[in-house]
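Hypothesis: this fold can be encoded by more than one sequence.
Test: take the structure tokens below, design a sequence, compare later.
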């Protein structure tokens, strides 16, 4: 692949698949806008010194290892299956999935030892083999690149080992989940040589800082309400604010506006108590970014 050496930081993301939209969305929230990327291999961002490379996810670890890309966004499952030793800069909290053992309903398994002597079909032979080794189990592994779930019905395997999300595919093939052997999410990986280029290292540090602020904003909400001046202390004690709340004057001298950043999911536990203490006009807003 001929990528222009324009000094821009090169980030590899999945071209078309389950990680694509969320990867682009994360970059966008970090101020890296990319437009018209459909069907293109490399797209430069107009807003940040970055080129985005669109690749098959399986190829991302190698391109980053070789320095063709400086950074990559890829699933931990792919990294591990490729035995990659790339540094993980950030876990990105999307693309979460589990690699599980599943077997026909009649073959009721609940623990690794029950796989002894069996044949297991998988697209993840390395991850499976190291799991079997850790559990001192000997089994035969059949590597398939897709449609792993039909292997037991075809009589080629006793069990399968594959990514399971809803379980619908398993059900259609009369398979039952046994247990998970690997938990995965999308991660940001970096090339081993990137930090030797001071200009690029600086962009990477800035990007990592932005990613952290986007991710921590997802765990927080911005709470706003009007409260009687007399209840400010009581209400402040109810709110699990991350920092001291902001109090603003209102036209009504008896009332103030109270704003606070709270952890996501906490409003419903305290809404009755807030109202009992005279809070009105309670609003909860998403936060796009939280700069530390
Ligand atoms: P490519 O054409 O890029 O090779 P692919 O078919 O190998 O794509 P996808 O199915 O798009 O890959 O999955 C990409 C990644 O998304 C997986 O490697 C995994 O990390 C993650 N993922 C999250 N949920 C699931 C799921 N339910 N099934 C499969 N992968 C999932
Ligand atoms: Zn793939």
């Amino acid at each position: 692949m001929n990528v222009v050496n324009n000094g821009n930081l090169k980030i590899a993301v999945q071209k078309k698949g389950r990680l694509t939209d969320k990867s682009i969305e994360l970059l966008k929230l970090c101020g890296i806008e990319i437009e018209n990327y459909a069907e293109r291999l490399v797209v430069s961002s107009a807003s940040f010194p970055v080129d985005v490379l669109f690749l098959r996810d399986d190829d991302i670890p190698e391109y980053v290892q070789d320095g063709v890309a400086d950074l990559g966004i890829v699933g931990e499952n792919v990294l591990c299956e490729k035995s990659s030793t790339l540094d993980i800069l950030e876990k990105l909290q999307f693309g979460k999935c589990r690699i599980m053992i599943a077997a026909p309903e009649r073959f009721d398994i609940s623990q690794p030892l029950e796989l002894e002597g069996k044949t297991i079909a998988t697209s993840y032979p390395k991850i499976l083999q190291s799991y079997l080794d850790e559990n001192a189990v000997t089994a035969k592994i059949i590597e398939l690149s897709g449609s792993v779930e039909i292997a037991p019905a075809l009589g080629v395997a006793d069990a399968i080992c594959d990514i399971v999300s809803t379980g619908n595919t398993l059900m259609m093939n009369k398979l039952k989940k046994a247990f998970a052997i690997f938990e995965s999410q999308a991660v940001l990986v970096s090339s081993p040589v990137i930090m030797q280029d001071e200009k690029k290292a600086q962009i990477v540090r800035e990007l990592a800082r932005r990613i952290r602020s986007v991710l921590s904003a997802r765990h927080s909400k911005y709470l706003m309400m009007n409260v009687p001046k007399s209840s400010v202390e009581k209400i402040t004690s109810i709110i699990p604010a991350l920092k001291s709340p902001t109090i603003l004057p209102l036209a009504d001298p008896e009332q103030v506006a109270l704003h606070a950043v709270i952890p996501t999911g906490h409003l419903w536990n305290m809404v009755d108590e807030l109202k009992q203490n005279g809070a009105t006009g309670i609003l909860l807003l998403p936060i796009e970014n939280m700069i530390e």
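The pocket of adenosine-5'-triphosphate (ligand 1) is lined by residues 14, 17-19, 56-58, 75, 77-78, 95, 97, 163, 165, 184 (CB under 6 Å). DSSP finds nine helices and 15 strands in the chain.
Hypothesis status: open.
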